[in-house]
């Protein structure tokens, strides 16, 4: 692994050595008394990280994308859904919901922007939506949505509407207050702010989300994603009892447990603040280099990643390649025709909390841009 | 981890140290040139392990159960499916297929038996089935189905019918010849005969399965399990090009690659033979103890696991607990009311190929039975 680069893409992120050691936990039965509390405590710590007292976390084996799929539990044919679209992931979440029969209305913001509070409240006043989805950080653009303001406004106008947030690139790096912000569903994965290798789909449900699921009129047209299968499993493990539907990813859950122990060992507010501080530092470096971030304002810029427009004449592949040569892995764009025109850097987890990796990225980026002929 | 027991349940199984080391591969981007060939070669080696030249493997992040889910790609509302039921997993596979609109006919064998060739051919002559499913080894009973004979007979009578095998507890421990046996879909997971921690759903598709998927009349009512998303990804990685739909479980795929390298380093026939030899040894020990296996004949007994009836007066929890005290983890039953009446032992992978763990199980089992008051 001598060619390994520092992984500074917006997920998977760098993993703590103890997390990697947990990944290599020797074979352990999924119903072993050693493992049961590991799973149970992980469920409890997820609740803690999203600042909830009562929500129900689900931890499934699968990619983060499987969280979108689980909306099949609360969507019935013809249900109206409002999708706030701030990039590639909003677009694809809408595609997923359509597959399960939702009628989609999209509020598409120009690239780098986000739908305004006015646009959202107007839309919610015009039509009764079963669900509004918001991507907290769209990994394609680095745009941060103001979940608190939007969710509270939506709930004030239409308490029955489910507020669903795609927080894949937000949990562990952005402020989230599940209960106080009246969220109903939060979707995330293991490989970003939670600092665990990819392979876990993590979803958190409000009582209201579970009620709507339980009172649906038509059966859930899904097997693996069906909450009927998973809710009893999660409740059992949290009660420190083994249960079986499908074999959990034991080693990944040991790794999740290790990372969550680290994360919850200090106040979560400190973690948010540190991510905000490092993000501001990176944005300043970008500005000092004469470059422009994709997010149109600092308010709308994520704290766990940044997307940056390339100078005229440079394409993403060149910069990504040059930084790779310096041992730093960053990512190109993923937004259709715009993809070659910008690059993305992740700043989450241990890279931010204890390793100061962003300084290496700034140094390598500055050198690479100069080597590629860029002059301010 | 000093309390860790030797994991001799029918999956997850014991993992090779090199596989565990691969699990702790430091953060690597899913599109990194280091990772792309690891994924591509894993796809190729899966094809090798199931003895196919042309089939299309899919490797997804998820439990083995997600393989059942993927049948949504070839099932349309009202499609007739014949399920050969040899235990809990056949029953649940039927449940999954029903969720996706299939009309199910079940051939249920008495516990420990399997539907006869006559029963199967009669059923296939009576009705045109879109699909026949067979559980190669039902992990609940340890019953081994004769896939070769059944598949060739079904295909001779009805070449259009898809033959789908649940080989979760068979790949890597039982003979499988995907092409020669004219299989269409094979479903497996990482944590049994493949010797990799749980978290990967692995499915192998024939050209005919892909054709039926491509010529379906109604859209696939699934997002995460949709082959439209995954087929281009697998083709790209096999062509050594990165691609993205959902983030793959990078570390698990490194582990899979390591285990597949070990498995394919010798002729696969040797692996089957060794599993047969160790299974026969364990069955003999069971018989010598005066106990009866669940499978009614040795022909119908799996080579990667064995289910054994307990003597009158003993329940599974007692024996499992006693062996746990001796550092050996075995499993109780999972078949409704019969669950406490039998136990299950896995004999797959390194435990069979190089570690001779079955001797430890036999010794501990013999001692435990004596301690629990069992006399022959």
Automatic annotation (TrEMBL), chains A, B:
**Keywords for this protein:** Aminotransferase, Pyridoxal phosphate, Transferase
User: Pfam families annotated for this entry?
Assistant: Aminotran_5
Where along this sequence does the record place binding of substrate?
344
Residue ranges constituting the Aminotransferase class V domain according to the UniProt record: 73-332
Source domain of life is: Eukaryota
GO terms, molecular function: alanine-glyoxylate transaminase activity; L-serine-pyruvate transaminase activity
Modified residues annotated as N6-(pyridoxal phosphate)lysine in this record: 192
EC number(s) from the headed UniProt entry: 2.6.1.44
Please give the family membership noted in the entry.
Belongs to the class-V pyridoxal-phosphate-dependent aminotransferase family.
Question: Per its record, how is this protein called by name?
Answer: alanine--glyoxylate transaminase
């Amino acid at each position: 692994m001598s060619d390994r680069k520092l992984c500074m893409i917006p997920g998977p992120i760098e993993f703590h050595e103890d997390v990697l050691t947990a990944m290599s936990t020797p074979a352990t039965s999924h119903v072993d008394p050693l493992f049961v509390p590991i799973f149970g405590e992980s469920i409890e710590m997820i609740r803690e990280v999203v600042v909830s007292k009562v929500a129900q976390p689900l931890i499934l084996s699968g990619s983060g994308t499987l969280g979108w799929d689980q909306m099949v539990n609360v969507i019935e044919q013809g249900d109206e859904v409002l999708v706030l679209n701030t990039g590639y992931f909003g677009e694809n979440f809408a595609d997923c919901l359509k597959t399960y029969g939702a009628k989609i209305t999209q509020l598409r913001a120009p690239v780098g922007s986000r739908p305004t509070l006015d646009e959202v409240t107007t839309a919610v006043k015009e039509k009764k939506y079963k669900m509004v989805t918001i991507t907290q950080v769209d990994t394609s653009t680095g745009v941060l949505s103001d979940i608190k303001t939007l969710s509270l406004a939506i709930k004030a106008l239409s308490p029955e509407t489910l507020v669903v947030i795609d927080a894949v690139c937000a949990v562990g790096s952005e402020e989230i207050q599940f209960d106080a912000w009246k969220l109903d569903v939060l979707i995330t994965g293991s490989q970003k702010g939670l600092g665990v290798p990819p392979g876990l789909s993590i979803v958190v449900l409000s009582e209201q989300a579970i009620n709507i699921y339980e009172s649906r009129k038509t059966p859930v047209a899904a097997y693996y994603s069906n909450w009927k299968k998973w809710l009893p499993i999660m409740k059992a493990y949290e009660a420190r009892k083994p249960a079986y539907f499908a074999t959990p990813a034991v080693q990944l859950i040991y790794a999740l447990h290790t990372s969550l122990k680290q994360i919850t060992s200090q106040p979560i507010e400190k973690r948010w603040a540190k991510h905000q501080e490092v993000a501001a530092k990176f944005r300043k470096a970008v500005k000092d280099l004469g470059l422009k971030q994709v997010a149109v304002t600092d308010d709308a810029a994520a704290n766990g990643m940044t997307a940056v427009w390339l100078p005229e004449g440079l394409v993403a592949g060149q910069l990504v390649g040059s930084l790779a040569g310096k041992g730093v892995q960053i990512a190109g764009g993923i937004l259709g025709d715009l993809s070659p025109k910008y690059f993305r850097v992740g700043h989450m987890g241990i890279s931010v909390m204890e390793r100061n990796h962003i300084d290496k990225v700034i140094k390598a980026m500055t050198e690479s841009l100069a080597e590629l002929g860029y002059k301010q």
